[in-house]
## 1
Amino acid sequence: MTAQEPARARPGESAGTAGAADEHAARFEATRPVAATRPGFSAAALTAAAAAVAVLAVAVWTILVVLDQPGPGLVLAAPVLGCAAVLGVLAARRRRRDQATAGLAGSMTEPIGVPDTTYLEVDARRWKGGWVGIPHLLNVRYPTVVDDAAPGWAEAVARAVHAHLGEQYVVARHNARDGRLTLRDPSRSPGPLSTQPEPEATPDPEPARRTTEKIHRPPPPGDQRPGRPVALGVNASGAQVTWDPGGSHGSLLVLGRSGSGKRVLLTGVALEAAVRGWPVWIIDHRRVDLHGLRDWPNVQIVASTLDDQIVVLEHAWREMESRVELVESGTSPADLEPLVVMVHHFREFATAVAEAAARADQSAAGAALASDRVTQLLRHGGQVNVVVVLSVQRADDPLLREQHRDDLGTVVALGRLDAPASSVLWRGADADESAEPVPGRGVVRVGDGTAATVQCYWTPDPREARRIGDEQDLRLIEAFRPHVVTHPVLHVQRPRARSDSPAATWRATLSGELTEGYASAASGLVDWGRARRTEQSDDTAGAGRDAGGWSEIVMVSQLEPGNLARIDDDTGWVVVEQVDAVENDGTRLRIQWRGSDGAGTAEVSRTRTVRIRHLSDGVY
Ligand SMILES: Nc1ncnc2c1ncn2[C@@H]1O[C@H](COP(=O)(O)OP(=O)(O)OP(=O)(O)O)[C@@H](O)[C@H]1O
């Protein structure tokens, strides 16, 4: 052990020398908790309260007897005495529970590795079974100098508690940095969450290292059952945690501060939805967070300007309304394909809409447009397969208030929550639930079910993955690329505003439409429709012909003979004739191409990106 290492405290171990033992004791001494903080009234406080109430009852009775009113005296004193008796009983139970907790702490000193129970704070909760009962949740604080890094340390503590109480416990959470361990009765763990590994779940070979490393999203199974739940991540025991968009808790709210992993989780959800063939509409309020999903097959639109975002939200709401009408006229909801509507940074978006409405002199209804639409989508969308996925940054967001709680479905809270937020979010039931501030680490809760820790899967942004060229990320992205585009790209078409006034612009925005294909004024990222139109305008005979089709960026390693590609600016658009490996160079490919000005060969890095064009046949 080096001088910097913390003392390894194991009762029963003989310290090498008296000096070392003293040093060890001194180090522990400094970590002794000042006073155990226990929630609720102490047994002494309850006893004192019982005595005070009993004295009050006797005093009331005595006064009324002196006033020659023994009957009313008895009527008044009896219930007060009853209260005193109840307080006395509670005090006695509290004392018994404190004794049981002290016994529990005693059973934990050895496996935890502290000299005695004064170094531990044991907060025992959810007592059930009999008058005193046994606690079903144990929050333990121990000194951070304890050596808790050994494999199986936390499980050994759980076993010791099991031996002491005869009730089995599992490790719900272990925060080594702050010296906190939470044990709970395993019967609480199952619930709506999938705590058993799904058949396709990839077992984590090194669970102990999960705290620090990315866990890559498992590739989609060959069998693309549309109803298959969406994987979110893994729980503390390595089992896959999933979200069922088609279930009764179909919407997903992702809560977390900046950098906690909201964008990464939303990217994963979008890819999972797209590979199932579901259309995905995205409102990306910060404009660039999810723009890597633009042009991704089945992601129909990533709206980045406020006007476009309002149109997308309006359309999602209209889509929901028309689906409701369909169901009313006899269509089975099961026949309605899921539509995933994602709003990243919902609160900022709603505030921006309210400000735009105020500038346009709109009524309160205009200002609340985003909140109202989202609330209605949350409330009714699930019944007609319009699935809402939202991200927000703050746990005190009005959306999380009590009146919306039943509509929220599945909630993933990433990172650490402060106690009041946690208590509001989990309705006080698991007020201690909060995850460590590790990116992607969170607590997930489905409806009113049990909250569980989750490490969300890492999902790369498709565009970033291509730019960086990380092999593993690129493989993952390719595994998720849908083979067939079942839902064409959409763009917003707005009527021209009658004037430049904010009110006219607002009205024009609200009557905007979502139209198939790319906008003619779109950026160079989506140039196929525009390029075709330009060529046709030169050729007057071709005017009015189909201008469908789109382009996308792919890696050179994805090029196939027959692709229409722009290998570089010199070649312009050419047809790929053959793609071969370069001898003795695994990093490059030889591409034979033919263009309008002749043919040629180019040796290009496998991971370089090129743009290819597709005709609008719906098939990649
Ligand atoms: N599941 C994850 N596994 C590993 N690393 C992650 C995970 N999620 C996020 N990260 C890391 O954290 C960084 C920030 O994540 P992300 O951009 O998703 O945060 P955010 O909550 O969307 O932030 P903001 O609110 O500022 O947009 C990522 O770039 C990545 O490095």
Note: The chain has 15 helices and 22 strands.
## 2
Amino acid sequence: AIQQILSWRKKPESEAKFPGPKQYPIVGRIHDLPRFSLWLKFQEWAHEHGPIYQTRAVDQTFIIISDEKIAEELLVKRGHIYSGRPQIRSLIDHKIKPNYSALMDRHDMWKYQRKWAHAAMAEAYKYHFYGHVEMEIKRYLGLLLLDPARFLDYTREYCGRVMSRLAWDDATQGRMNGESADTTLHCMSVSGPITNTVAPLWHLPAFINPWYNFEVKREAEQKAWWLNNLRVAKHRFHEGTLPNDTWAWRYFDQLVREGNPSLEQDEEQEVFASCMMGFVNLVGVVTISGPLKFFLMAMGLHPEWQKKAQEEIDRVCGDRMPTMKDFADLPTVRACLKETVRWRSGVPLGVPHQAEQDDEYRGVKIKKGTIILACEWTLNRIPEKYPDGDNYRPERWLEAGWPTYQEPLSRYPNFREGHGMHSFGWGRRTCLGQNIVDDETFVFGASVLWGFNIAQKTCPRTGKPIPIDTQATNSHVILEPNSYQMAFKPRSDERAKQILEEYHSVLGKLKL
Ligand code: HEM
């Protein structure tokens, strides 16, 4: 507070500023920032103050961008300035530790981990993730048939299993992977521990600080779990039983090629490697399960689009289950998925960037340390690019005349290129998961719609559909919708039989 009062006295009156909401002494505008659905407040302010505005929470300045061009100018063209990450109060030293690739500052460790993960992902994409996505979907459909009420659980587990299979050849860790991701996301979100908003509480001494103690335990358990997985995988590599389509195998093979055939490493090196793989593994779960849960919701609420996609699938695949080979022929399925991620963003605030040095933009000085947020929720509702942005309109990707329409439809829309790629962030920090998002969501969407009709559940008392609040989420940085109900019915007895047969055919091959 004293620092602020002194800086007000020093500040020349005329210093140019971006517009923004009225700021109050000391608090700035922290008092009316909601902990849940914060993006709605940012959207409201964007309508009031324009595509770039600034606000303050105590002594931290934020610049909020709601325009693609401005975001590109700052976060891409000036990526050498705006690619840091801000401190999240309730995580410990995440800017420098190996277990937080996406939350580190840009230093050599970040560069190494990012390069490694990018190469591993690109290699696996060449082989469409070695068929694991298609194997896991057969398990998922079987479970959906047997126990449809648990569809939300199974959806997250499907995503966790694909990642754990790719990382360590151990899909059984998929459930734990999802839970661990969820807790980590809670701890790093404004909707999480109160210490993320009332930061001074974080500095209470450890013996009366439940938030700090929780975080120390959470982080230690997660790191120990990752390290154990690495060591098990190393043991299996030595034995010759670790499949070569895992990231762990790729890493050990690299060590061998670098002249370390015995894979001797000290603990620090092992921790580094286990965190590098563990983090990619972890970040790939909820990022995909959130959009998939919203996709099922959208299909239940928009039977007309469900029907269009099913007619397309039936025309192309008939009685066989869809696979990645059908990608080019199922644009309606892809449009429904792409529109889901636009309509209900999985990362609605974007991931914050931080200015690494002083800069000036449009005549306004931006200080080192300023946090820049390109608000994804607002970007997805810019009327010129996304007309009728509040509504679910997959036709914007399918029909000429819409600003986001792109040809050929055998290629667009997708999650790797073309319009709407701002969902995956900006410049040097762009998401590394686009390839797997493309495959995993496509196989999921096409297969579920091939096998099932999805409808809102009816209340047995009123006879009316049970309402779904499509905006109710956990408000994490990467979010999932709150629990909701939906009815799944196999589209025919024949399809149900096929789903069960396919389920049995993979049981022996999958780790359960
Ligand atoms: C629809 C799903 C997904 C969306 C919308 C999404 C979105 C994002 C966004 C907005 C960022 C921050 C970019 C920035 O700071 O400008 C990000 C970063 C990242 N994403 Fe994703 N993501 C998705 C799926 C995935 C998956 C499946 C993986 C991995 C398997 C992944 C791995 C990463 C990593 C490693 C980063 C950190 C990059 C860095 O800081 O250097 N993402 N993602």
Note: The chain has a mean pLDDT of 96.
